[in-house]
């Protein structure tokens, strides 16, 4: 193979009620299919995390959202690894029994999956996560004691030589009952997702190290009408396993080229919901020689399209169609050649 690897980025922004990717790992089938078409797929925890469910994809890179933004801007490269030492931060606000459940989940990934974890650290102060909702309906949140989170991460990095950080913060159980009920039944916005992003962004920005978050919550009452898209979060006491699996081989961020590092100018295509095009990574990659593919049936609570921004993009109806565009692009075939009418080079088609 003489050509360079075909590299695509798959983004489904978190906390915006995406019809696909707005629930518990329900965009993972899209990533699995896309990984078969591409040589390298770059995506983020919101796509790959499914609570206790996950899937190993050897050619897929698990990149936290802030790190993905810096990558798309060309500031950071992604350096593939065989293995990371993953440090675990537990919020002091987690009750003893619930803390034990998360420690057992971490031990299970060591014994059953062979992951390399360092010692865990409990924050010196409860993090005090609070949830918010924007006017658009997107979720976000705040941390009452971000300094405590950073001190815990610093300890893991300096004393335990952690190369990636998993965080488990205690989230409020008293989420608006209607919002939570809608989410569990496959409607509306994940009320936790926006706050989760704030937590991981803080650590990645400060330490330039892979990070992802799993919320600690009391198990919800059994409901036999739960949507399959939300069902992964109904399976146990913790959402931690998928985070530890993702971080175990998450690429490291680098600022200088390495022999196998990946940079933004090597990205051939970006696939993103059609109404969620206002993010930093999307805007940065649109300025590169990257083919932008937007998916119209993955509706969101936002309404920012490529047309609104003056960005050239290929709009497709579904991820099935997006896979076809990627396959043709990788093969060097014009998608116009796959349509029943091909116009002469001397004339324009309507």
SSE ordering: EHEHEHEEHEEEHEHHEHEEHEHEH
- Tell me the count of domains: 2
Report mean pLDDT, rounded to a whole number: 93
Number of helices: 11
Protein name: DUF3326 domain-containing protein
InterPro entries: DUF3326
Organism: Crocosphaera subtropica (strain ATCC 51142 / BH68) (Cyanothece sp. (strain ATCC 51142))
What report would you give on this structure?
This protein is α/β, with parallel strands linked by helices. The radius of gyration is 20 Å and the shape is globular. The longest helix is centred in the N-terminal third of the chain and has 18 residues, at 96-113. 31% of the residues lie in helices and 18% in strands. Helix 1 (28-37) runs parallel beside helix 11 (319-331). The chain contains eleven helices and 14 strands. It folds into two domains: 7-80 and 254-338, Rossmann fold, CATH 3.40.50; 86-248, Rossmann fold (3-Layer(aba) Sandwich). The chain has helices at 28-37, 45-48, 65-72, 96-113, 146-159, 177-184, 193-207, 240-248, 280-285, 306-309, 319-331, and strands at residues 7-10, 40-43, 60-62, 77-79, 86-90, 117-122, 129-133, 139-143, 164-170, 211-216, 252-254, 269-273, 291-295, 314-316. The strands form four sheets. The chain has a six-stranded parallel beta sheet with strand order 3-2-1-12-13-14. Strands 6-5-9-10 form a four-stranded parallel beta sheet, with helices on both faces.
